[in-house]
């Protein structure tokens, strides 16, 4: 061995990195450090790893409760999947068709989204488009083709661009429901060129928005997202197993409570997590969306568990040492050369404040994600179906056109007006997971697995299972699940007396019936998680906020932050951003430079 190689190995072994948070960002950060020989300790407040990735058995089926897929073709995530030996488990979506619900709660039309990008139709005269925007909306959208090329200018807001070029109906009924349903953001707050890369250039070239979309469409239908057969929990298990092989110490049931820097390095103060920490998910990727293929988590412009006998339980995941079982005291201190904060935005802001750094976490929206297993096949809304649901008013950054011609949409998105408590529905979206994933459909048989996103109440007087911001002391999100029966035994902190878990299931059932245009039978089983949606990277101002936060953090040597609040929602961007940031950490440790 050369002296140079021996020196690098020595530097790696002498360094100690502490990772706060055991979600995907934290586990990937730990892996990137440990595989070059750096000593790593991961501290996770809950009793399990994975953050928003949670695969559990419901009615005998391995089901993802929140994040159920990821975007195909993301280089960093592809590399990770290959490195973990999961390539053979990757399953592209079989059904990616999307529908939107328009109208009012008592007179709802559910119609398939026309071919396009981010909800913008390539042909506003198509039958699918006209069913949603009507003849009046189609004529208004057509006028865009008659505008002189000189009227084309750079419009940053996707909502404003669509409204001025194709009219309010296209924005509110086609584009807005995707942004709101997937990410809980208003379409006017979405950056057009980030949501649809190349849109401004194509618009200048084509002279109309529909023409620009036609130029940017892929050559043929292809799935834009995928999952892992057996559930996304396999990704967490594989990461935990690899970290165990690399002798990474993982402590669950303990949280990083404060940071202090002195000449010796970072003093990391650790405390036992609260008794209900299992209900909290303070992980960088815990702010994901149920239908995010990238998470989300939700198709971005935004996936199920290993077999019961091969899937580690939360308390016994590979490499997961509880604080009580660890040799180190669960309440105490660790001296570290580098601290990687891989929590959600609120928890990260709290930890950074303890280190004298002021960073504001981005605003976020909470949702109750209720998974229902129902007996009879659900006849989901077709392009001509009518139901009782929602009037769209917000959109999502998506680059994908429908990738399938199946008769039944896999996902139906609603809008803020319908998702509000006043509508009586409260649903932002419903996804038929068995329509999306072939392995689930084969295992479920006549059963259907429906994932319903309900807007969490923002007013304590409105019905809801929790107070408006049920947060742990460290700012971590609260979440809980029950996998047998109708949420009979939840461990939610301070549940609101106004709503019982069975009522939450009843609300999800009513919402699913409305958005799918067919009566959903009494659930055989149900599960619930409350999640905080991470704003996508395409939100206007996200890049600037991230740059400002990282500039403030960079002023303190040996401190790094990763996660959805910086990378944007979705597994793929979280992995890519984490790999990039940790490469700087490795370069600093091994070579004394970034």
Could you walk me through the main structural features you see in this protein, from its secondary elements to its overall organization?
With 594 residues, the chain is α/β, with parallel strands linked by helices. Helix content is 31%, strand content 20%. The protein has 18 helices and 24 strands. The protein has an eight-stranded mixed β-sheet, with helices on both faces. Strand 3 (55-58) and strand 4 (61-64) form a beta hairpin. Helix 3 packs across helix 18 (571-591) and helix 5 (158-166) runs antiparallel to helix 6. Mean pLDDT is 78; it is low at 276-330, 380-407 and 459-500.
Quick overview:
The protein is of the alpha/beta class and 594 residues long. The chain is 31% helix and 20% strand. Helix 2 (24-34) links the parallel strand 1 (16-20) and strand 2.
How much of the sequence lies in strands comes to 15-25%
Strand order of the largest sheet: 19-8-7-20-21-22-18-23
Low-confidence segments: 276-330, 380-407, 459-500
Number of strands: 24
How many helices? The count is 18
């Amino acid at each position: 061995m050369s002296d140079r190689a021996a020196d690098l190995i020595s530097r790696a072994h002498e360094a100690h990195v502490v990772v706060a948070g055991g979600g995907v960002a934290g586990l990937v950060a730990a892996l990137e450090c440990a595989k070059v020989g750096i000593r790593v300790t991961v501290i996770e407040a809950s009793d399990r790893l994975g953050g928003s990735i949670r695969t559990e058995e419901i009615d005998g089926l391995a089901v993802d409760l929140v994040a159920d897929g990821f975007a195909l073709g993301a280089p960093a995530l592809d590399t990770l999947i290959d490195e973990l030996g999961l390539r053979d488990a990757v399953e592209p979506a079989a059904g990616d068709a999307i529908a939107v619900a328009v109208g009012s709660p008592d007179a709802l039309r559910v119609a398939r989204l026309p071919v396009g990008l981010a909800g913008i139709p390539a042909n506003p005269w198509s039958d699918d488009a006209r069913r949603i925007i009507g003849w009046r909306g189609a004529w208004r959208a057509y006028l865009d083709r008659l505008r002189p090329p000189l009227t084309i200018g750079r419009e940053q807001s996707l909502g404003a661009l669509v409204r001025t070029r194709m009219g309010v109906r296209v924005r509110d009924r086609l584009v807005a429901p995707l942004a709101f349903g997937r990410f809980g953001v208003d379409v006017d707050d979405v950056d057009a060129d980030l949501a649809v890369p190349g849109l401004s250039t194509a618009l200048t070239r084509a002279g109309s928005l529909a023409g620009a979309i036609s130029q940017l469409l892929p050559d043929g239908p292809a799935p834009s997202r995928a999952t892992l057969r057996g559930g996304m929990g396999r990704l967490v298990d594989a990461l935990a197993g690899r970290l165990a092989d690399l002798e990474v110490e993982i402590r669950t049931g303990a949280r990083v409570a404060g940071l202090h820097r002195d000449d010796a390095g970072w003093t990391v103060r650790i405390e036992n997590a609260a008794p209900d920490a299992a209900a909290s998910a303070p992980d960088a990727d815990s702010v994901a969306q149920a239908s995010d293929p990238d998470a989300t988590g939700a198709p971005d412009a935004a996936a199920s568990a290993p077999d019961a006998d091969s899937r580690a339980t939360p308390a016994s995941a590979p490499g997961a040492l509880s604080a009580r079982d660890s040799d180190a005291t669960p309440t105490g201190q660790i001296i570290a050369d580098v601290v990687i904060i891989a929590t959600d935005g609120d928890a990260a802001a709290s930890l950074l404040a303890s280190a004298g750094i002021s960073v504001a976490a981005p605003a976020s929206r909470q949702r109750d994600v209720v998974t229902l297993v129902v007996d009879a096949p659900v006849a989901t809304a077709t392009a001509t179906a009518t139901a009782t649901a929602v009037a769209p008013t917000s959109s999502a950054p998506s680059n994908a056109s429908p990738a399938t011609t199946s008769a039944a949409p896999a996902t139906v998105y609603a809008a803020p007006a319908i998702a509000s408590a006043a509508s009586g529905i409260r649903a932002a979206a419903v996804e038929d997971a068995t329509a999306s994933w072939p392995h689930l459909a084969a295992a479920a048989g006549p059963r259907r697995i429906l994932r319903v996103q309900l807007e969490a109440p923002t007013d304590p007087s409105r019905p809801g299972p929790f107070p408006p911001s049920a947060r742990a002391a460290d700012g971590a999100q609260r979440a809980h699940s029950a996998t047998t029966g109708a949420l009979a035994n939840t461990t939610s902190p301070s549940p609101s007396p106004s709503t019982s878990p069975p009522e939450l299931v009843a609300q999800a059932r009513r919402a699913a019936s409305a958005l799918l245009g067919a009566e959903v039978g009494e659930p055989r089983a149900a599960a619930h998680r409350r999640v905080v949606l991470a704003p996508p990277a395409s939100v206007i101002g996200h890049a600037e906020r991230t740059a400002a936060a990282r500039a403030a953090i960079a002023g303190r040597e040996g401190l790094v932050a990763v996660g959805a609040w910086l990378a944007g929602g979705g597994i793929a961007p979280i992995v890519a951003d984490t790999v990039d940031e940790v490469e700087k950490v490795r370069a600093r440790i091994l070579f004394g430079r970034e």
